[in-house]
Amino acid sequence: MVSYTEIFDSFVPANTGWQDYDIFTNNGIPKGAIVEILMTNGTTNAGRDIGVRTDGSALDRYITIHESEDDGENGYNALVKVDASTGLIEIYCSATTGVTFYILGYFEGVDYTELFALLPASTPQQNWNEIDLTGYGVANNSVVQILMPCNQINWYNDMGVREVGSALVRYIRTHECEPSPYSAYTNYVKANAEAKIEYYNRYIYYVDPGDPTEFFVLGYFGSGMDYQELWSLKDITVDATWQEFDLTAELDEDGRVVNVCIFNTETSSENTIGVRGGDSVLNRYYLEHEAESYGITGSCFTARSNSSGIIDLYSSDNVNETAYLAGYFIFTEVVVVSKPQFGNLPLKMEVEGMI
User: Fold this and answer.
1) Among 261, 122, 116, 111, CA closest to 196
2) CATH domain 112-222 topology
């Protein structure tokens, strides 16, 4: 049975380079779980290479996150599978100063295939274009996690992903990176029966010649996971208070595990932002650094709506915050029932929403 457990914990790296981290012993994350980790750089004068991968993986699954602006933290999140035998994951950093790994929660009862595949820029720019992810290792009809880093120095880039045929304007204005390569966020998207998605960037190059826009496939869920994409603005109206949002009208049923992207829009100061489930008492937030060059900066959180469809959002500066309900997960699995056959056809039952 597929399940999701929301937590909020953190650790800092002991060394540089790829290193084992015992997330089972140190943080109580079950062996074999798919854990969601937010990786941040709080250094105000230097970028940091930060990443995570499955124990024993050979993928160089990290990017350089640019320096934090005016205090706060800057980063991105990724899923990683905990080794089923050892309880280990591998973490990476180029320097330990200022680097924090936040554990947001974990999935059980579903598989996850880890990737780190570079996609070309979406061409032509300022257009939603299809891309076939088959050659990048993605399975048909799977729920995919995509990393979208802005590598345009001194200017923003609009970047997003959506299902093929969707009409949602599902992108954000990712702020400039300075001076190191990336300012980034991640989101989920459902690939179709041909493993295709649509993706968008405002610029291929802001300064030409320069580095072209890049997207990365971080991995995909196996059977047992479905996803309904949304892009619904949620306006926080109070400062420094957990505010309830009722999602009932947007979910097929209350209690769904949702994906919420939340950002700081203030270009001169940091903002404490966070997301938690409706029944949670966790202070599940962090200090996001200031945005730059007309863009916004933040992360996406997974959280469980409660039996009334409620989640909580937080911002220390609600005037300079924006949040989107980006979608919700549907846990599915096929149960074969041992009953007499009718002719040559076995009786099967598909169970959805097993939470």
Assistant:
1) 122
2) Jelly Rolls (2.60.120)
